[in-house]
Amino acid sequence: MSSTRMGELSELDIEHCLRGEGLQVASFRCLVRSDTGLLSSPLCQLYQDHAVETEPCGFYDFRIRLAKTRPNFWKPWEVVFDWDGSSPFPAMPLAQTHPLFEWGLNWCVASASGLHTVIHSAVVERAGQALVLPGQPGSGKSTLCAALTFGGWRLLSDELTIVSQSDGMVQAVPRPISLKGTSIGLIGSQFPCADMTVPVADTHKGSIAYARAASAAVTAGEKPAPIGYVVFPRFRSGAELVFEPLSRAATLTELMKNTFNVGLLGADGFEALAHAIVHAKCYAVEYGDLSSILQWVDATCRHPD
Question: Which end of the chain is more exposed for a tag (fewer CB within 10 A), N or C?
Fold first, then answer.
């Protein structure tokens, strides 16, 4: 087994591994293989600070393959996501290989975890307290997450808040931040330091690009944090910022609606999540522009109990 950082490998090295025995990458022991020729470049750019294994062996949480396919010679090439012989997604255009990898890995983590509560939520940390940002598509959580991380918060996760059932701590899984549509240009213009991929157009989520997690966030990837705040953001263009404090009971109810593996965890998962937010301050916030919500977060989520 040979372990190194992704940034120490060339795209050619990465491509060779993907087409061969595979490459262990990301915050989980994920062995990925691909013959598409379109995954090595985004992995090289976005995962450069992550540790990888170029001679994989032993146990892996997930064995993933993204394979080229073309049912008929007159049709364009597509890509299929395979997880140990099963595919949760239909074949997609070949150009969407990288987004499919990110979506597929999220799906694997959300579906397979039995030791953690997995919430569809972004989560960041500052001063030792995690800020959980649950939200449905279009709520602006990923845009807000990106702005906070480029503004000094530590990224724990863009899509999955993983809460340990044993101690209620949020586990750090700092992978790339997904940005869609107008958010791509907004973050790019406000934060020129953001290292972002070229957008992929015409996905089922529209145009999508990914921003690299800060090196410091990846380095601190083994450091969990307790939940200090839960904020349900809702973006509505042109709206004045209004917020409402939420009871922990109401917060817990909404969090359970956003929990992927609630059926797998049952009553134990409910109790563990209730314990995890026992000291959290909870809010629902509607806002119409990024600057107003950033100012509100900075003023509200700065003094942990």
Answer: C
Radius of gyration of the chain (CA): 19
Q: Could you tell me the pTM of the whole model?
A: 0.93
Q: Which residues contact 277 (CB under 8 A, 6 or more apart)?
A: 227, 230, 248, 251, 252, 255
> Which residues make up the CATH 3.40.50 domain(s) of the chain?
116-300
Topology of domain 116-300 in CATH is: Rossmann fold (3.40.50)
Q: Which residues in the chain belong to E strands, given as ranges?
A: 3-5, 23-25, 30-34, 51-53, 62-69, 78-83, 92-93, 116-126, 129-134, 154-157, 160-164, 170-171, 177-180, 200-203, 206-211, 227-235, 242-245, 281-287
Per-10-residue mean pLDDT of the chain, 305 residues long, equals 83 96 85 96 96 86 94 91 89 97 92 81 96 88 95 95 92 95 95 96 95 95 94 93 96 89 72 92 95 95 65
